[in-house]
Input
Amino acid sequence: MSFEESKSLAIKIINIYSERMKWGVFSKSIKNNHIPKAKNYSGLIEKIKEFSGPTVEVEKAIDIICKLIGLLKEHAISGEKAVRLAHVPFEHVDEFSSFLHDKLSEYSSRGDGWILECNTSIEANDYPEIVHIIELNKGIALIFNSTRETSSKEEIPHSAIISDYKKDYSEGGKYYYINKINRRCHDVVFFNPINGLVEFRIDNNFNFSTEERVQAFKKLQFAFNRFCKKKSTLQFIDLFPAVSSLYKMPAGDGRVVELSFTTDEGGIKRNKNRLATGGCILNEEFHKGGCKCINDHLTPFKIARVWPFKGSSYNSEPELMLPGTLWMVSLAGVDNRSLKEFVVTKSVGCKDYDMIFAKLCKALNFKQIDEGYQKVT
Output
């Protein structure tokens, strides 16, 4: 590969990172003195464009950025995901595993094209399309290309409003337009053959709404069943019991940055603490004093906890969110009460995601076995 080709590849990789990972997470996670310092992705790209010749230092920087494609693939598989957890009935695990391994060689030979392809022919209303299968340490990941439409409300500037409507504007009225953008996503189905667990991981790097995530899960499950010719009926796991377990973890085991709970008297409290460096709601005097007044008689229904991760190639502080709702408390013991998803943010690759998943499994009372977890019965 020529210098200019390497330079173009580096810019392409950074552009894809900019669509998947916030600059603050990227800049703090990727520790390497050879990568040019910048304030944002645009600044980093401009500095790469300014590289005029293949000096030793420049070639080193380009080479390191190009090698980030490996971490980029990890992020597509494990970074910024909303996840539903299911398991394959024990009697179907071997058949299910055999089917996926047979498909592995067919799809794994396609190379890195699936991550570098910036455009997709899949429309927002289409079902996801499988583009790659990769074998990881703890199982098999099926990677699907999908497109989701995001909507945002933007205020129309006063200068852009036609005269007929400016009267309302001057009297305090405001006009908005709905900005709709198609987002390219990588959705993943991860299967662990040791314990039969299946994770439906949908991209959540654009902070999709609850309804948008629900539709994405339905489409991914349909695409997965169609690909597997519905080899088995999956049994989805209720995650709500893990909310209380995460709350009861010791204060030093990560940090609680969001907590919603109800009291025996019917009070509802919602706390957030993501701004304070190293802050934890459990250590706040206000929270400790309130808990003392009610003798710790509270029922959490929504919680987010973060843990620091230090690896050989990156550092991160991923967050695990269990987005339960108040009605789940009122329906305790009812069959249709179910927390179907957990949300992982600020994860960079597979290793910090695996750390978060291990914390969840502990909260769900799963016991660790070789290369995985299984439910304690």
User: Anything to note?
Assistant: The mean pLDDT is 84.
